[in-house]
Design brief:
The structure is a single chain. A hairpin with a 4-residue loop joins strand 4 and strand 5. The strands form two sheets. The protein has a six-stranded mixed β-sheet, with helices on both faces. The protein has a five-stranded mixed β-sheet with strand order 7-11-8-10-9, with helices on both faces. It has 427 residues and is an alpha+beta fold. It has two domains: 208 residues, Metalloenzyme, LuxS/M16 peptidase-like (Cytochrome Bc1 Complex, Chain A, domain 1, 2-Layer Sandwich), CATH 3.30.830.10; 184 residues, 2-Layer Sandwich (Cytochrome Bc1 Complex, Chain A, domain 1). It contains 15 helices and eleven strands. Keywords: Hydrolase, Metalloprotease, Protease, Zinc. Belongs to the peptidase M16 family. This is Insulinase family protein. One of its GO terms (molecular function) is metallopeptidase activity.
Length: 427
């Protein structure tokens, strides 16, 4: 299914990779900036730094006062945000085409001159914001720490994926202003980023604007590569059982999977989709509709580029049902898939779902810009947005079964269970 979104690329003298996809059919322009730094780049003692900068980058720079980044763009009709992940950090905004210069000027000012505004007061303030985020999203939300617990079990200590992007609060408390400045200087430069511009602008005008606002910024020293996280499938079972004040009993299993960008990862992801994606998934049909032992099931692959990915399966027990019954059913279906394989109809269904989801993502300027940055930064191939779905469609039933047999196994998993405690106390 060939896609033909236009892709034009230039690399500025300072190393900034600029990708433009002109779309004159909409009066919107999306600006998307991916930095090649995420939690997997953080050395021991500096966890949480990439996520900390997601906050600091909105707190002013040399020519932008604290709070003005949001206010200036929102006044211009923009929607904007940022996110941090294991493999990258991204900053993005969508706004009417006339606001392109404003968006690029703001992004360039904080790329080049953020540290002018990162003083001790600013650092302390945003450190407190991150702590409150952790309390709200991880510590005081039902099941909020499940992924923290899972990655600690799934990866050995020191592995680049063994900690979440929120990081360690002890590391953030110990971070000095000098530590924070040094981290920024190491990773946040034009030659460690991809800038994507999509929407109502010509290629020529977009490249000219990128050069005007970013071209004078100096390159940084080439950052050190992230540690190699290559590791094979799980070979044993590890559990973490939690009694907590949760609304329902829940189990999540995690499996190590192949690295992103490989047919084997595509096959493993489709295997998890056949189990858990949508109303037609095997687990939903059996556990939710037929046996009614689970309120819901979910799961899927989380692609990563640092030598390994991971995938999960989650079941929430129905009221009055022992969680062990849900666990047993999950394991039976995992083993059945590996032993008996999948049908061509099942595979075609999840491939069609993947195609639909991909087309929906690319249908908006913002979604397209994000995927272009993603594939340009992590794979060096912005045009991969036009060929990605073909790779998924090429997976065979034999590849799905082989991936399941190697990677998605009852005897090779970690799991976290949450059971309601009578007292409501948390572990």
């Amino acid at each position: 299914m060939p896609l033909t979104y236009p892709i034009a690329e230039q690399t500025l003298d300072n190393g900034l990779r600029v990708v433009v996809s002109s779309d004159r059919a909409v009066p919107i322009v999306a600006v998307n900036l991916w930095y090649d730094v995420g939690s997997r780049h953080e050395p021991p003692g500096l966890t949480g730094f990439a996520h900390l900068f997601e906050h600091l980058m909105f707190q002013g720079s040399r020519n932008v006062a604290s709070g003005q980044h949001f206010s200036l763009l929102e006044t211009a009709g923009a929607s904007l945000n940022a996110s941090t992940f294991f493999d990258r950090t991204n900053y993005f905004e969508s706004l009417p085409g006339g606001g392109l210069d404003l968006a690029l000027w703001l992004e360039a000012d904080r790329m080049g001159y953020l540290l002018d505004a990162v003083n001790q007061e600013n650092l302390d303030n945003q450190r407190d914001v991150v702590k409150e985020e952790k309390r709200q999203s991880y510590d005081n939300r039902p099941y909020g720490d499940s992924y923290e617990r899972l990655v600690k079990l799934a990866f050995p200590e020191g592995h680049p994926y063994a900690h979440m992007t929120i990081g360690s609060m002890a590391d953030l408390d110990a971070a000095s202003l000098e530590d924070v400045h040094a981290f920024f200087r190491k990773y946040y430069g034009p030659n460690n980023a991809v800038l994507t511009i999509v929407g109502d602008v010509s290629e020529e005008d977009a490249f000219d604007a990128a050069k005007r606002y970013f071209g004078h910024l100096p390159a940084i020293t080439t950052p050190p590569p992230a540690p190699d996280g290559t590791i094979g499938p799980m070979t044993d079972v590890q559990r973490d059982d939690v009694e907590s004040d949760v609304p329902s009993d829940l189990i999540t299993m995690m499996f190590r999977l192949p690295v992103d960008g490989t047919p084997e990862l595509d096959a493993a992801g489709l295997a998890l989709d056949i189990l858990a994606a949508g109303q037609s998934g095997r687990l939903n049909r059996r556990l939710v509709r037929d046996e009614q032992i689970a309120q819901s099931v979910s799961g899927g692959a989380l692609p990563l580029i640092g030598g390994v990915s991971f995938g999960t399966l989650t079941g929430i027990a129905s009221d009055g049902i022992e969680l062990q019954k849900v666990e047993d059913a999950l394991l039976e279906e995992i083993e059945k898939l590996a032993a008996d394989g999948v049908t061509s109809e099942e595979l075609a269904t999840v491939q069609a779902q993947a195609e639909r989801d991909w087309l929906e993502q690319l249908a908006t300027c913002a979604g397209r810009a994000d995927e272009i940055s993603h594939h340009a930064l992590l794979f060096g191939d912005a045009n991969r947005i036009n060929t990605r779905i073909d790779q998924v469609q090429a997976v065979t039933v034999e590849q799905v079964q082989a991936a399941a047999q190697k990677w998605i196994r009852a005897s090779g998993r970690v799991q976290v269970t949450y059971r309601r405690s009578e007292s409501g106390e948390q572990e």
